[in-house]
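Suppose you are handed only these lines of text.
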Amino acid sequence: MLADVAALLRCPQCPEDDESALVLERRTLRCPRGHSFDVAKQGYVNLLGAAVPHHADTAAMVAARDRFLGSGAYAPIRDALRARVHPVEPDDAGRPLTVLEAGAGTGYYLAGALGERDRGLALDISPAAARRAARAHPRIGAVVADTWAGLPVRSGTVDVLLAVFAPRNPAEFARVLCPQGRALVVAPLPDHLAGLREALGLLEIEADKEAHLLARMAGYLVPDGHTDIRFSLRLTEAAVADLVGMGPNAFHDRSGEAGPLPDEVGVAVRLWEFITA
Ligand SMILES: C[S@@+](CC[C@H](N)C(=O)[O-])C[C@H]1O[C@@H](n2cnc3c(N)ncnc32)[C@H](O)[C@@H]1O
Ligand SMILES: [Zn+2]
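From them, the structure of the protein bound to S-adenosylmethionine can be written out as follows.
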């Protein structure tokens, strides 16, 4: 719920150095200078401060992602993230963590990462995604926000930040993390879903993606190890439709290009761990 995370949020309309927390009064978030943001009836708040861009994930894309992830297809990725957030299962003695997911989509990974008393902040540029993330877990608050525009989050408040198949803003990630904080970044390896991409003529993964990632992090976040997650996925027709429908390829008409589909496909992603520089 937003009440769990309101104190982490800062006003997108006030000067950047104003770190005052927003206060939730009934169904409105307010800053000390009088800006106010209404909480939608579905429980999320829009702090974009601008129109929703046309490339934001649509309700249909979010529904496809929800069905695909709900089938358990990517559960090994969720389990790996949880294991990094909580190397030891959380117990009552442990300090509750604040976990933020940037580009959270449906909130699937964030919900999976939370221990018993942790709280989660799901940020996404898509209102449809924020709507879904708001009900992914009782202690998740969901906010519409643009990772590139700067996070509406107070500095040094986050223990663990997740960015899973989502845009990264290293300066902002480093700013919101607390001194011992960690960023966990999941990105596809070059052979991720290779058989499926080939059969459907889908967008390829750029070969130099990883070099790019590390170069952009430099100065803000330092790599502290990585784990490769590989497993094979049985592909039903419904899974293929949802995989295509939930991703950027949904914006391209690829009909007519499809070859025979493989029965199984390899999932190959790298989970990076970063600490602040
Ligand atoms: C490939 S999806 C990943 C969603 C989720 N992390 C998952 O893996 O299920 C990318 C997400 O990033 C969001 N996104 C794209 N651009 C963004 C931006 N500039 N700021 C915040 N979110 C953004 C999209 O709306 C989408 O939900
Ligand atoms: Zn303000």
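What can we learn from it? The chain has a mean pLDDT of 92. The pocket of S-adenosylmethionine (ligand 1) is lined by residues 56-57, 65, 69, 103-106, 108-109, 124-126, 129, 146-148, 164-167 (CB under 6 Å).
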